[in-house]
Amino acid sequence: MSDPATPAPGWPFWVGTSWKMNGLPDDARSYAERIAAVDDWHGVLPFVMPPFTVLADVARLLRDSPVQVGGQNMHWDECGSWTGEISAPMLRQCGATMVELGHSERRRHFGETDQTVNLKVHAALRHGLTPLVCIGETQAERDGGVADLILARQVRLALHGLTAAHVGRVMFAYEPVWAIGEAGRPAPPELVAQAAAGIRQELDRAAGAPGVSPPLLYGGSVNLENAAPYAALAGIDGLFVGRAAWTAEGYAALARAAARPPCRGP
Ligand code: 13P
């Protein structure tokens, strides 16, 4: 039997969505009102990450619900001459409790690096935001046999300079670059399980002990058909969803599909 004070692996289970660059004010409000009205999340921990322009509105509409709200990126500095950027205090004031960092679309198109992710992780924790760090290998890196090395490197550099106690306040999402978006192919669950085991070793090492290391979510072409098989993987603590959760009904249905009994044993 596991110690009752130690949550079973894979529980609590997170189901979150990033809207990416979608969500005009009317649509965002309607989405938020619909998920605010969901009365049973079946035990999952829900979160949404809307664009900055609607974040305050969405957070206000979800204030009395269990759904947490996060930004999709932020700068590491508090304020200053950083045209076009958003800071952690700004996100906090808008009602965000989380922030996504290092998504592969930001790494690929906007110059995000492991070093800037690390600066942002420190800033998020300083300001009471939970960082959700996205990591993942490209197809070429997987074909070249270095996927595990790449993942370990991304984890280590994201957590560089944190105390073991702070490591436990970070969340990770394993998102193979080749599995994400319109051209993505869902990763086979066995591959996700194998990658998750390697990532977990790195997280346990950084946290200083097994069982207290960060939650690890899976993302990349998650949909209603594959949500349950991913959710059943022992090394996965949640799902991070794009397209399939871009309607409130799609998101709520995914949360239902991923829900697992709270007393599930190890
Ligand atoms: P899709 O679910 O659209 O593949 O996007 C996943 C993702 O990038 C979540 O961050």
Automatic annotation (TrEMBL):
One Pfam family matching this protein = TIM
Q: Where is the signal peptide?
A: none
Supply the CDD domains for this chain.
TIM
Q: Which family does it belong to?
A: Belongs to the triosephosphate isomerase family.
Could you describe the subunit structure of this protein?
Answer: Homodimer.
Q: What protein name does the entry list?
A: Triosephosphate isomerase
Question: Biological process GO terms, please?
Answer: gluconeogenesis; glyceraldehyde-3-phosphate biosynthetic process; glycerol catabolic process; glycolytic process
The record's section on InterPro entries has: Aldolase_TIM, TIM_sf, Triosephosphate_isomerase
Q: What reaction does this enzyme carry out catalytically?
A: D-glyceraldehyde 3-phosphate = dihydroxyacetone phosphate; L-erythrulose 1-phosphate = D-erythrulose 4-phosphate
A single Gene Ontology molecular function, please? triose-phosphate isomerase activity
Q: Which key words tag this protein in UniProt?
A: Cytoplasm, Gluconeogenesis, Glycolysis, Isomerase
- Domain of life (superkingdom): Bacteria
Listed pathway(s):
Carbohydrate biosynthesis; gluconeogenesis; Carbohydrate degradation; glycolysis; D-glyceraldehyde 3-phosphate from glycerone phosphate: step 1/1
Look up the EC number in the record and give it. Answer: 5.3.1.1
Tell where it localizes: Cytoplasm
Source lineage = Bacteria, Pseudomonadati, Pseudomonadota, Alphaproteobacteria, Acetobacterales
Any one of the GO CC terms:
cytosol
Its main subcellular localisation, reduced to a broad class, is cytoplasm
SUPFAM superfamilies in the record: Triosephosphate isomerase (TIM)
Q: Does the keyword Isomerase apply?
A: yes
